[in-house]
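Module 6 notes. Inverse folding takes a fixed backbone as the condition and produces residue identities as the prediction. Think of it as a translation problem where the source language is geometry and the target language is the twenty amino acids. Below is one complete input and output pair. Work through it position by position during the lab.
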């Protein structure tokens, strides 16, 4: 995925071959356990004749397909903040993360991180 560039102004991706992967704008729903989120699909017809398709996708029929979550902008913004403030994030880990470890393991709340009725 790091070889594909997303362009917010056209809501499309450009692949390593310079082809534009576009979306029809339809939101699809994916459900895992009790959570669900929406995503859009991006494709290009150029995959049919692409000389490096075998390096790009394992799909015998059809071409490369990219799924972009509704939360992708928030994830990108967070990654950007992290890159710009690595020292601050390291400090946050030192100060905050062990508290959650104490709550979970020391006080017996390990189940709080599990999902699903069985767990
Ligand atoms: S298979 Fe499709 S998406 Fe992948 S490099 Fe070729 S044209 Fe681009």
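Target side of the pair, the amino acids:
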């Amino acid at each position: 995925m790091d070889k594909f560039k997303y362009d917010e102004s056209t809501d499309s991706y450009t692949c390593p071959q310079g082809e534009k992967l576009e979306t029809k704008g339809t939101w699809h729903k994916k459900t895992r356990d009790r959570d669900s989120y929406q995503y859009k699909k991006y494709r290009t017809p150029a995959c049919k004749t692409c000389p490096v398709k075998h390096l790009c996708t394992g799909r015998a029929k059809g071409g490369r397909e990219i799924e972009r979550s509704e939360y992708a902008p928030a994830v990108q913004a967070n990654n950007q903040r992290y890159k710009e403030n690595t020292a601050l994030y390291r400090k946050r880990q030192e100060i905050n993360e062990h508290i959650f470890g104490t709550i979970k393991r020391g006080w017996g709340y390990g189940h709080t991180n599990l999902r699903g009725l069985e767990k």
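Reference fact for the lab report: Residues 1-69 form one domain.
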